[in-house]
Amino acid sequence: MATSTGSDSERWQIYEVVLRYCRGLDRNDKALMRSAYHADGIDHHTGFTGTADEFIEWLTPLWRDYQGSMHFIGNHWAEIVGDDAVVETYGMSVHWGKLDEDGKNTTNGFRYVDHMTKRDGLWAISERWAARDWTRSDAGRYVPKEAEGPTGTRTQEDPLWVLKRKLQIG
Amino acid sequence: MATSTGSDSERWQIYEVVLRYCRGLDRNDKALMRSAYHADGIDHHTGFTGTADEFIEWLTPLWRDYQGSMHFIGNHWAEIVGDDAVVETYGMSVHWGKLDEDGKNTTNGFRYVDHMTKRDGLWAISERWAARDWTRSDAGRYVPKEAEGPTGTRTQEDPLWVLKRKLQIG
Amino acid sequence: MATSTGSDSERWQIYEVVLRYCRGLDRNDKALMRSAYHADGIDHHTGFTGTADEFIEWLTPLWRDYQGSMHFIGNHWAEIVGDDAVVETYGMSVHWGKLDEDGKNTTNGFRYVDHMTKRDGLWAISERWAARDWTRSDAGRYVPKEAEGPTGTRTQEDPLWVLKRKLQIG
Lengths: 170, 170, 170
Prior knowledge:
The structure is a homotrimer.
Chain A: H1 8-27, H2 30-34, E1 37-45, E2 48-51, H3 52-64, E3 68-81, E4 84-96, E5 106-119, E6 122-137, H4 159-167
């Protein structure tokens, strides 16, 4: 069992690193996504290995093929020793195309295995392994919403950005 | 990137606001669900916009058509500035009818985008946008349990309430 | 609404108890899984009731029939009063066999309802009810990965263990 030395505040900071990655990717804020990594951060993904900059460049055209994505995270465990941490975060990433583009509708089960480091007081990813556990097709399962209402988008009109602008938070 | 001023304790309090909503809805404790909002709280949902009181009134007959629900939450990010917070919480809501009522079996992917405020020391929702990201049919996928065991209910016999009564907690 | 007396640090400790169970089970570290319970811990599961030791013994052959599992947790609410806590954790457990063994591909929706106690300063499970809310077949839905990349395993070669050994953390 791990012996962890980090403070509770550091746990929240480390959790927010993962949140920045997910929100940045799902809402199309590449600067936010990029901020989850240190300048020299490395990423190992299904079909890719290289720097964080190269990863985002590689991902961008693939990501445009989808109508949206949701990088949903659960179990989050940061084992902190000094300025290093091993951080495991369980995730399910839901990707959808248009309703008639079934091939694009998949959910992946994965775990982000992150080596995070603290530099100048800021935690970020030095190296990530996105370990894919399973891949499920959701072809033919998506259906239209039953009524109108707030909807997620990749534009500045997503309810999140609208509220943040209104309250001048963030 | 947001600059947040809240304390770690406030983060837990804000997280519990969302937990109260989910447990209240899934376990049929409307007072608990209602307590997630301030007295004048507003909710924007798929097919509904209005006060929290009106929302619960609107939801009740719809909700009776299901055998159960699970409002499962993941990514939770509270950006706190003074007594205001923008709080985004990712969720998947699983709804099931009886095993032969396939039309009712759906899972929705959403994000709660909440404007929470602190009044008299208590955080709660002032205004919520439940942004629906995707809707998936689970028709034909539910199967019976393979054996007997603890089961979720909407009654006072759910294992959670039984344990809370036994330990006199809550 | 519950009145909770625990500190923020205790909340993290209690959350890690649940994390130990999930990682131990998914990564095949039975000692880690066992450490989530006190020595005399009790577990009530679908198809089983008995001590934690008996539970792990009962589970082991069943678990070998699967290629892998993911015990994905969300909503986590610890209501702490002194050295007792009622802890509810929502979960979805994804189980997969080989790609052509469809009968084994199921996802279960459940809630861990845990009576945790603090003894000698350590929180662990005294009694658990794993309340099954729904059972979904994923037969015919799993597909191969689209490319090579980091993969979850039950062996010492999982990226998590590789990183922990490299950094000598844990």
